[in-house]
Specification:
about 325 residues; alpha+beta; Trna Endonuclease, Chain: A, domain 1
């Protein structure tokens, strides 16, 4: 008798062996449903029956370091139900079903969609697809060398192969350039800094976000504490660099003024407090952590970061030299 639970167990075991469930891992594995608001919203009408109800694949995997990517896995017990000839039967087939979910989720994420069928390790069949965010349809996801991915692989490998796709690269570039304007407008309205200070706030935050402990803990600080911690971590990161002491001093000094800017700390007016209860600096750190830091720490694409910073400077008129301190 076919038993889909056996297939799920095989996938769960594979994920566990690769560290997806480790407590110190940034990946989050959810089964049958998600507690993430954006995912819940996109799956609200993703029923495989096509009647508009909510649906969810067997596994939904996300990672705080790469928030624009999801891995979703749909299982079927019998390999005869792996894929239909036209991929138009999401209820009956694993490939069809996971592509249905990917289509809905791709409105907000780059989706790596995995179909799995079979009840033993020897017969387990896996197909892997990529549905880039905003794209009309999915495509098969291959390795950078062009080979099909027919097994469960580590999260970082999925990201490496997924970000190699030209459509994903182009989309990320365009989104990052658009974010530079959004960031400028947010800082103009809320940060209350001079034009020369705004680029320093960006570069200083990117330096601070190179500190793994700060990246994990900045959400825990009270608004009145965050500025102090922000400056402390910048100093710590710059002092790690192999530079003359005088150079380190000249690099850290400009950030000291920003660290005491009143508008960045605890909100003083009711309107700002209601909209940004954790403060303006927190919102800036959160945005840069989600939108820009992955290009430094995960994708190592400093060219794109440089383009983002250059685009941002078009609005502020600041000094592009400040970005050089990010790569210390």
């Amino acid at each position: 008798m076919s038993n889909e639970r056996k297939t799920e167990n095989l996938i769960r075991d594979a994920l566990r062996k690769l560290g997806y469930y480790n407590s110190d891992c940034l990946t989050r594995v959810e089964e049958q449903k998600s507690e993430t608001a954006d995912i819940k919203r996109l799956l609200k009408s993703a029923s495989k029956t096509g009647k508009g109800g909510k649906g969810a694949p067997e596994f939904i995997i996300s990672d705080s370091d790469t928030p624009d990517f999801l891995v979703v896995i749909e299982c079927k017990a019998d390999i005869k139900h792996h894929e239909s000839s036209n991929r138009d039967n999401p209820v009956g087939f694993a490939v069809d079903g996971v592509l249905n979910y990917a289509e809905h989720l791709a409105k907000g994420f780059n989706v790596i969609a995995i179909a799995a069928s079979g009840q033993t390790q020897s017969q387990l069949k896996i197909s892997t697809f990529l549905h880039p965010k905003g794209a009309a349809k999915a495509k098969e996801l291959n390795t950078k060398s062009g080979k099909a991915i027919t097994e469960i692989i580590p999260w970082n490998d999925y990201i490496e192969h997924g970000t190699f796709d030209p459509s994903v690269q182009a989309l990320r570039h365009d989104e990052l350039m658009a974010f530079s304007r959004e960031l400028h407008e947010f800082m103009r309205d809320h940060a209350k800094l001079t034009e020369s200070e705004k680029p320093l706030l960006v570069s200083g935050t990117l330096i601070a976000l190179q500190n793994k402990a700060f990246t994990k803990s900045f959400d825990d600080y009270k608004p009145e504490e965050l500025q102090t911690q922000w400056l402390r971590v910048i100093n710590e990161e710059i002092n790690k660099a192999e530079l003359p002491q005088a150079k380190k001093y000249s690099m850290t000094q400009p950030y000291s003024t920003i660290a005491v800017a009143p508008a960045l700390g605890k909100p003083n007016d009711a309107k700002t407090a209601a909209k940004y209860p954790k403060g303006v600096l927190y919102e800036l750190i959160k945005s840069l952590n989600e939108k820009v830091r992955p290009f430094i720490s995960i994708y190592h694409d400093f060219d794109v970061v440089g383009q983002f910073y250059g685009e941002f400077l078009k609005y502020t008129g600041g000094d592009k030299k400040a970005l050089g301190s990010v790569d210390i």
